Amino acid sequence: MIKKEMIAMLLAGGQGSRLGVLTSRMAKPAVSFGGKYRIIDFPLSNCINSGVDTVGVLTQYQPLRLNTHIGIGIPWDLDRNIGGVTVLPPYEKNVNSEWYTGTANAIYQNLEYMESFHPEYILILSGDHIYKMDYEVMLDFHKEKGAEVTIAVMPVPVEEARRFGIMITDKDRRITDFEEKPENPRSNLASMGIYIFNWKTLKEALLVNAHLPGLDFGKHVIPYCHGKGSPLYAYEFNGYWKDVGTLSSYWEANMELIDIVPEFNLYEEYWKIFTKSEILPPQYIAAGSVAERSIIGEGSEIYGQVYNSVIGCGVSVGRDTVIRDSIIMNNTQIGQGCQITKAIVAENVQIADHVRLGEGEEVPNETEPHIYSGGLVTVGELSKIPEGVTAGKNTCIFGATVKEDYPNGYLAGGKTLIKAGEEQ
């Protein structure tokens, strides 16, 4: 009989709609990060670095890129005969087939998968946060406290606490109460959406509450366990943790990688971040070009100037082009004589010669000011930008655009340009 002490269930089905056009064709955990990685690489690497070798990845929204990236788990050493990584999309059952309707419903629909490993503990993770964490240390804490549920928490500034689920604990770290996004928080310990459950406790909570619409951990499962008197504990984490759910936080997290002393270090020998790597030649920095305080992926060719930016793999930057404070993702081609400032350019984009992005004053975006903000220019995957045009700040460009789409060669600040048929 197969028996695993702890298995991980990684929720990776989210659309990540606050990332705008970056997630129009892929799930948020599949978005590129840090030049050569994808967001999901971080929790997956945490699993293998923590000795957790059985991971179920629950996918739903636009899963193709994620499935191809994960494959059979070779880069993370998760290609095991027993355990390893398994992608778990919603599937047709003989009764009431349904999409995953909430975080806990997704786990409930995979009870059989978990049961097959006879685990003692289940680790629940999100696929869309950037952090390094040793889950083994959290499991030791869980056992030592005799907990049935342990919730990873992080101290946040009190003024930000109302954005999170907040845990109230006694001096022994036992959770006495919790509040979802409280107006007047009674504590600053924010839930990170990382849980360890005793298998029996989780199974019972899921079966009893299975009928609830949109079954969710924060709204249903944890309150149920608490109400039943199960011992719930808060495990405090004090490392770097970033929810890259908005374009601004995604841009900031990438920029933090290139700080003089990066708060989040990709180069630590003892805690490697694994990813699926293409077989690419080394990067090439041409004579007369400049690359300063930047990450540049394999196979990229730099003929212009790159400052304070994160450049993916297989990118080409033409002569006399200046890129500042930007994220350029894999296989994007940028022509000559361009000026690109504070832009997020997705994968496989073609930017012709003499294009200027991020010019002028900052004005709010006209269609989705809560998404396209922070003075950024966002260019969606596979887009084309014609020669000689300029785009202002807080703009969004998506699709094979042509000169006629830019009145007088200019896309004013705050405008959204999405070609019909591009938004799937």
Spans where pLDDT lies below 50 across 5 or more residues: none
Beta-strand percentage range = 25-35%
Helix content: 10-25%
Broad shape: elongated
Radius of gyration: 23 Å
Report how far apart the termini are. Answer: 45 Å
Biggest sheet architecture: 9 strands, mixed
Number of strands: 33
Helix and strand content put the structural class at alpha/beta
Q: What is the mean predicted local confidence, pLDDT?
A: 88
**How many helices does DSSP assign?**
8
Quick synopsis:
Helix content is 17%, strand content 28%.
Structure description:
With 424 residues, this protein is an alpha/beta fold. 17% of the residues lie in helices and 28% in strands. The protein contains eight helices and 33 strands. Strands 1, 4, 5, 6, 8, 9, 10, 11 and 12 form a nine-stranded mixed sheet that branches. Helix 6 crosses helix 7. It is elongated. The model has no long low-confidence stretch (mean pLDDT 88).
